[in-house]
Amino acid sequence: MNERGTIMIKCVFMDSEYCSMGRWISMIVGDVCGMRLLEGIDLAELSDEPWLTKAYLNDFDHRMAGRTAGELAANEEFQRVNAALLEGAKKAIAQGPCIIHERALGALLGDTPDSMRVMLYNKSMEHRIPRAVGDPTFDLADASHDEVVRFICSQDADRAAYRNALTDMPWGAKESYDLCLDSDLLGREKCAEILIEAVSDLKLDAQKCKETIDRIMEKWAENHR
Fold first, then answer.
1. Where are the domains of the chain?
2. Confidence (pTM)
3. Is the per-residue pLDDT at 107 higher than 90?
4. Which end of the chain is more exposed for a tag (fewer CB within 10 A), N or C?
5. Residues paired with residue 12 on neighbouring β-strands, in sequence order
6. 135-149 b/e with 16+ CB inside 10 Å = b?
């Protein structure tokens, strides 16, 4: 089905394990349902803070990596950046239907009317490994199996620490979400279909799905070079 129907959920807060296909699924759901996909860079632009540039945010994320939730919570720069991203998220929600990825915003803005908090995970580490190796934002082509596994785990740990520094609703815990989906068991297409069903009265068109991903991933790769 290509025509857009009634969107019942206006904002999806999407958390996801690294290489669980959360971004792929969000892209498809966003395109089919007419919901903008927003990540940190997009929220930074909406914050209207001139210092919060793409380069600054990328450097900030790099410097904050590996820190514990307690260390992040006590870091003034972390709190300042998150406050700016929070304001950007509020503006995004006011502008119309959207999917917001990570940054603890599902916990901080979970009481937003007509919103849903979603967790995407994948219980198969072996299925996540080739996706990590193929991620153009990191250079893992020559990494060993164990090195890639450690990297994947470190990415999840960083996502958990970020959220846990800002809220007592733990990253990844089922009690923190309205819907949890295992992309290993269900597959990425079925996860997208379930989420589309959850937010609207739409069905997923397989060919349109492929065309959408090809188009969006090309643009995404350009933005992360």
1. 11-105+113-223
2. 0.84
3. yes
4. C
5. 99, 116
6. eeeeeeeebeeeebb
